[in-house]
Amino acid sequence: MTHMTRRTALASMGAALATPALVSRASAAEVTLRLHHFLPPVAPMHTSFFEVWAAELAEASEGAIEVQIFPAMQLGGKPPQLADQVRNGICDIAWTLPVYTPDRFPVAETMSNPFMVTNAEKTSVALHNLMDEFGGDEYRGMKPLAYHTHDGGKLHTRDAPVLSAADLQGLKLRAPNQSTGDMLAGFGAEVVFFPVTEMVVGLSSGVIDGCCLPYEVVPAFKLQELTSFTSEPAAGARGLYANSFSLLMNEARYEGLSDDLRGVIDAASGIELSRRIGKQFDGFEAFGRGVVEKHGNTIEEIPVEEINRWREAASPVHEAWIAKLNDRGHDGAAIMARANELLDAG
């Protein structure tokens, strides 16, 4: 059905014919897409986004598209393998973090540098624009459906708050990515990096004293019970960091769909989906902060002046990232300048 959507075609038939068609189509999907991600099924991203989005695709396609969601790596493998799984067809759609395969998707990873975040909605739109302008070749064999970030990370610690760089000295911290880890190490922290799914064991066993994460992760892993203090940048300051995410579809699977079903996918993806996911993450952030407050943990504010000192101290990390982009054939300075311009706009 090249020139008409299913909905238009059905509407033109008349009620007597349309109703049986809808019933038969709804009883058996024409296309089943397997969506794979690493978070537990109780995570808000699963319940408030993936399940809702899957239902929207089913409705928009009149039941022709069914999305089966596999949380917590139920299709096997580890989180760093998700991009390859979608490229190789092990799953049809995957939600993944570029930082889980460091330096492989450097343009997408740029927003994961320190202090490259305002809030999740605005930063997600900035990231999507940055990828459209500079990162089009990074996901060969895959069709990106959305790019987004979470809100800025906070420092969650067991024994004392972090209000200055001096407080980081000797602190064993799980870093969220390499570049943020480099910044924290520059302040004297002892940094380790492993996926968020392994962090509970690290905190429970005392391998680490704390972690750098947004509030939205807290409820799913009960981090409010494993830490007692949270240190957050003052309002108006850039966030400490935000990891970028990519929602990817197998390109051959997408191209193999009929014109009208590709149209359904197109209408449910793109920059507006990136904006929507970012906005949802801002909501998840507010909820997670409420969980920390309700548990009675202490929330402290890192002053703007201190954050500005940290930003200045992080400039070698940004310079190293520019050099890395240059090594990959990009104009690193232009990408970093454009990222900051997009973040500061509006």
From TrEMBL:
Gene3D superfamilies, per the entry: Bacterial extracellular solute-binding protein, family 7
Regions annotated as coiled coil: none
Signal peptide bounds: 1-28
One of the record's GO cellular component terms: periplasmic space
This protein's UniProt keywords: Periplasm, Signal
Pfam families: DctP (PF03480)
InterPro entries registered for this protein in UniProt: DctP_fam, TAT_signal, TRAP_DctP_sf
NCBIfam families according to UniProt: TRAP_S1
Record's protein name: TRAP-type C4-dicarboxylate transport system, substrate-binding protein
